[in-house]
């Protein structure tokens, strides 16, 4: 015969295991929902802002200013377009990826910045793209999040040279 206090302890241990299992299932479902939302957002056409209407009486040709130079464009000093360079992990330090018009970052082979060595990176972790002369980055519903200069991204953000982007355990620096 098993003593009553031992039965109580076993009962509470079983309840704790059931709750842990339930929470793990909820976390997996939540990650899948976020991933499917990111897939839908990526397949949607890019959002463009409508140009401001011309003030009354002013010709449109005089109102339009030239767009700012794109940080992706080849500068006059010949230093080239933006690139992402791996800083961490040390065994991959120095590996460089040239950024295209739109680039995905992740473990998947189809990504422009493929990081198959990082098991903490999602298969499609983040997206970088050009819009209105700026470079943007957004998290694609990754499990471990995307960090820009050690701050977790909760919305699309702009990138500049020298910024550090972390996906999984890989730290990338924006440079030339």
The ordered string of helix (H) and strand (E) elements is: HHEEEEEEEEEEE
- Give the overall average pLDDT: 79
- Rg, Å, rounded: 23 Å
**Biggest β-sheet: count, sense, barrel?**
6 strands, antiparallel
Structural class: alpha+beta
Task: Estimate the helix proportion, in percent.
Answer: 25-40%
Low-confidence stretches are: 60-64, 66-80
Biggest sheet: strand arrangement? 2-1-11-10-7-8
Shape: elongated
Q: Termini, distance in Å?
A: 74 Å
Report the β-strand fraction as a percent range. Answer: 25-35%
Helical region count? 2
Strand count: 11
Describe the structure in brief:
The chain has 176 residues and is of the alpha+beta class.
Task: Describe this protein's structure.
This protein has 176 residues and is of the alpha+beta class. Helices cover 25% and strands 26% of the residues. The chain has two helices and eleven strands; from the N terminus they run ααβββββββββββ. It has helices at 4-43, 60-63, and strands at 83-88, 96-98, 102-106, 113-114, 126-131, 134-139, 146-148, 151-152, 157-159, 164-167, 170-175. It has a six-stranded antiparallel β-sheet with strand order 2-1-11-10-7-8, with no helix packed on it. A five-stranded mixed β-sheet has the order 4-3-5-6-9, with no helix packed on it. A hairpin with a 2-residue loop joins β10 and β11 (170-175). The longest helix is centred in the N-terminal third of the chain and has 40 residues, at 4-43. The protein is elongated and about 75 Å long. The chain starts with a helix and ends with a strand. Mean pLDDT is 79; it is low at 60-64 and 66-80.
